[in-house]
């Protein structure tokens, strides 16, 4: 069942994920709760929900406006995964457990009600490549940032390449100067190194949960550097920080390249701002959204899941098809393939062509 191509009500996975993130960005509580519940009810939907919510947090809210959200979602995920484990992976048990519904509703409601802050636009890899030669010339001529204390703590002389040290120094210098365009340039450049033939050697920093080629990704060097600078700034409570990194590891594969980049950009933006105030001990966290709004959203979960169950029954009773959310996909889905002509049809066409 893990290979399902659609949700329980027949919607495409990509459409549901996009609709969920869009609803969170727009502050639409009804739609956000609806599409989150759709993923909870669907086979293999929980893992997608983990990544979509974390990605939405990075894209539209960020650690500056909701640093405690990561801890809430991590703790709720721990409970949901416990229910999943005890039920031997039975999604019917998970989606019908009231505490699971409440946990998801609370997490989504916080994102919907949190103040929004759009993510800065990151340059495309091709833009970085066009500028890379001029950048290399500048660095060769002694125009680099020089050794930075954070990079010095993270970079391993015996296992990390010299190019990685240079990029790390440049990125840290941009962060300390709060120069976001330069910061974004170095983040994108660093993340594209994995696809390059001349990728520098890198120390293996990935946790045991990560397998395959991702274990030696240069992205783990970037994560280690951001983590070191965030700890230096002392701007986030330790438990919030730990849960944020935990969520990144949990969703690492499902986030994909773009999702991981957006999370790194959101954290880097936060680090750059907090480094300007590094003398502060711990910043005062923004208040949580009004409890009454979150409580109202959580109280309506049973009715919402009943509606999904009814829609799922109708979908199963009909000829299975993928229900889509976008007009373009809807038009494509309605174009039916013409049946092959029968032998009589072919004979009639042949007579018509010879004029008989």
Characterization of this structure:
Mean pLDDT is 85; it is low at 279-284. It is globular and about 80 Å long. The protein starts with 12 loop residues before the first helix and ends with a helix. It contains 17 helices and no strands. α2 crosses α15, α4 (69-86) packs antiparallel against α6 and α6 crosses α14. Helix content is 64%, strand content 0%.
- Category from helices, strands and their pairing: mainly alpha
Terminal Cα span = 55 Å
Q: What number is the mean pLDDT? A: 85
Query: Uncertain regions: pLDDT < 50 for 5+ in a row?
Result: 279-284
Order of helices and strands: HHHHHHHHHHHHHHHHH
Radius of gyration: 25 Å
Shape: globular
Total of DSSP H or I helical runs spanning 4+ residues: 17
Give me the count of strands.
0
> Beta-sheet strand percentage?
under 5%
The biggest beta sheet reads: none
Helix percent band: 55-70%
Number of structural domains: 2
What is this structure's SSE topology?
Layout: H1 13-26, H2 29-41, H3 45-60, H4 69-86, H5 91-95, H6 98-113, H7 125-140, H8 149-154, H9 162-176, H10 180-192, H11 219-233, H12 238-250, H13 252-275, H14 291-299, H15 301-317, H16 327-334, H17 343-353
Helix pairs in contact: 1-2, 1-3, 1-6, 2-3, 2-6, 2-15, 3-13, 4-6, 4-12, 6-14, 9-10, 10-13, 11-13, 12-13
């Amino acid at each position: 069942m893990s290979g399902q191509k659609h949700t329980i009500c027949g919607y495409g996975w990509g459409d549901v994920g996009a609709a969920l993130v869009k609803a969170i960005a727009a502050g639409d509580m009804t739609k956000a709760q609806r599409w989150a519940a759709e993923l909870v009810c669907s086979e293999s939907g929980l893992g997608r929900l983990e990544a979509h919510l974390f990605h939405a947090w990075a894209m539209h809210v960020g650690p500056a406006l909701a640093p405690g959200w990561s801890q809430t979602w991590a703790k709720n995920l721990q409970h949901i995964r416990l229910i999943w484990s005890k039920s031997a992976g039975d999604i019917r048990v998970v989606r019908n457990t009231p505490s699971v519904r409440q946990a998801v509703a609370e997490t989504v409601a916080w994102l919907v009600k949190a103040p929004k802050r759009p993510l800065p636009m990151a340059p495309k890899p091709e833009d970085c490549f066009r500028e890379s030669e001029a950048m290399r010339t500048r660095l060769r001529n002694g125009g680099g940032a020089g050794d930075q204390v954070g990079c010095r703590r993270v970079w391993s002389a015996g296992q990390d390449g010299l190019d990685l040290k240079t990029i790390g120094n440049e990125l840290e210098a941009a962060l300390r100067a709060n120069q976001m365009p330069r910061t974004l340039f170095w983040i994108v450049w660093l993340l594209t190194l994995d696809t390059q033939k001349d990728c520098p050697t890198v120390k293996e920093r990935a946790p045991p949960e990560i397998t395959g080629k991702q274990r030696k990704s240069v992205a783990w060097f970037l994560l280690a550097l951001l983590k070191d600078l965030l700890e230096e700034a002392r701007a986030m409570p330790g438990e919030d920080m730990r849960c944020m990194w935990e969520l990144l590891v949990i969703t690492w594969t499902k986030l994909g390249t773009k999702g991981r980049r957006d999370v790194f950009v959101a954290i880097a933006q936060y680090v750059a701002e907090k480094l300007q105030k590094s003398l502060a001990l711990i910043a005062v966290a923004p208040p949580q959204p009004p409890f009454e709004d979150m409580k109202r959203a959580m109280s309506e979960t049973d009715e919402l899941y009943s509606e999904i169950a009814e829609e799922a029954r109708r979908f199963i009773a009909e000829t299975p098809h993928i229900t889509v959310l976008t007009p373009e996909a809807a038009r494509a889905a309605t174009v039916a393939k013409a049946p092959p002509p029968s032998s009589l049809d072919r004979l009639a066409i042949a007579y018509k062509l010879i004029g008989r």
